[in-house]
Amino acid sequence: MKMSRAYAAMIVSAVAAIALPTAASAGCYNCYAPPQPCGTCYQQQVAPAQYRAVQETVMVSPGAVVAHRSPAQYRTVMVPRTVMVAPESVQYEHIPAQYETRQHVEMVAPARTYYVPVAPRCNSCGY
Description:
Layout: H1 2-19, E1 41-47, E2 50-61, E3 64-70, E4 73-77, E5 81-86, E6 89-95, E7 98-109, E8 112-118
């Protein structure tokens, strides 16, 4: 008889433990409760990635030097003789480099998650 009372007490205590409201059944979701008994709950927060717009000057085309050659010029003078009127020459044309300001977006900080304490929102479970 003593054995059946012990079994009955264990069954009653197991049913009572299952029937009591838990954090999930009381409406407390997305909440991490630390193992120590304290009055705060921690909720995960997500900080999005941060970006910034950067403007930089880039070279579109490099500078150049173009050589223009002109051949020597000759003429025939009164006496049947050919003389040089202008010698061969080279003229250099300097073309400056072309620059442009371009804008692009770069990541300053990646997204991160962290936990923040929140006030209890359930009266029945304490979280």
